[in-house]
Amino acid sequence: MTQQFRADLHTHTSFSDGTLSPEELIDKAIEVGLSGLAITDHDTIDAYTRALAYAKSRNFPLLGGVEFSTHHYGESFHLLAYCFRLNDPLLQALCTKHKTRRKERNRLMLERLNQMGIEIEESELLPFLEGSVGRPHIAKLLVEKGVVRSISDAFSKYIGDGKAAFVPGERMELSDTIDVVHKAGGIAILAHPHLMKRQRMLRRALELPLDGLECYYARLDPSRERPFVEIAEGRNWWMTGGSDFHGENRPHTFLGSSWVGYDTFDPLYERFLKQNAL
Ligand code: AMP
Ligand code: ZN
Ligand code: FE
Ligand code: FE
């Protein structure tokens, strides 16, 4: 009997706030029986330089992806993008802009923590610098220093949205990000819409020229997926899915806990190969 085709389209590596290297993630994907994968690090595609060559050596289909941090009417949204040209100058410039934004924002958050008597030097973030550095890394340092007991404590006490050491940083507009993704030949998918608390804000995002919704996410109850499947079906949009795997940084989220089948993965993968002349 052939194994069921499952492809996880939402995962993070050590190039953002996941704990596995791109190679380790691909090994794990094969180990858990996945037939395809997309790496969607926050605001960077740097993992692909290594991951594509490694995936090829293991004969494993790896789809290009990224998860952009954006804002729309003051609300924060994550935008997943797939199938874009990896060497597109506009898309690469956006990633570079995010790197600068993050550096400045991290500096300001550390400054706030220092004012509260918690000393973390900017240089302590250096070990993470191969990729996108952000709040999860600061949270890790707060745990290591014994300031808080867990990553989630770090968010709820200090760096979660609106908390004392939280700094929003420069805002990247959702519609501009969608535009960059389109110009790079990619498709723009609104990530985990189920997590949006303010429905009015979600409706505003849904007015934008998106190409799909992340209908299947982590281990969601199907009843929570249904409304988004209906919206996507009604608009003839892509319906994607993935686990949002972060390795040990989110130990209860398993690789492959959400996925798409061959009918979704194959056209995406074909388009990605064509766009990148692979
Ligand atoms: P940043 O991109 O630097 O703003 O960090 C946001 C990331 O932090 C999210 O994508 C999550 O991976 C993680 N995160 C956000 N809130 C929490 C939380 N309460 N506990 C643990 N991780 C969180
Ligand atoms: Zn993350
Ligand atoms: Fe996200
Ligand atoms: Fe994510």
Please specify the SSE layout and strand pairing.
Blueprint lengths: L6 E2 L13 H10 L4 E3 L8 H11 L4 E2 L1 E8 L2 E8 L6 H27 L19 H10 L6 H9 L14 H10 L3 E4 L8 H7 L6 E6 L4 H14 L2 E5 L19 H14 L3
Parallel strand pairs: 1-2, 2-3, 6-7, 7-8
Antiparallel strand pairs: 4-5, 5-6
Bound molecules: adenosine monophosphate, zinc ion and fe (iii) ion (2 copies).
The site of zinc ion has 5 residues, from loops.
Instruction: Report helical residue fraction.
Output: 40-55%
Q: Which structural class is indicated by helix and strand composition?
A: alpha/beta
| Main β-sheet, spatial strand arrangement | 4-5-6-7-8
* Assembly type: single chain
**Which distinct ligands sit in these coordinates?**
adenosine monophosphate, zinc ion, fe (iii) ion
What is the rounded Rg? Answer: 18 Å
Overall shape: it is: globular
The number of helices is 9
Strand content: 5-15%
Q: How many beta-strand elements?
A: 8
Order of helices and strands: EHEHEEEHHHHEHEHEH
Q: How widely separated are the two ends? A: 31 Å
Largest sheet: 5 strands, mixed
Mean pLDDT: 96
Low-pLDDT stretches are none
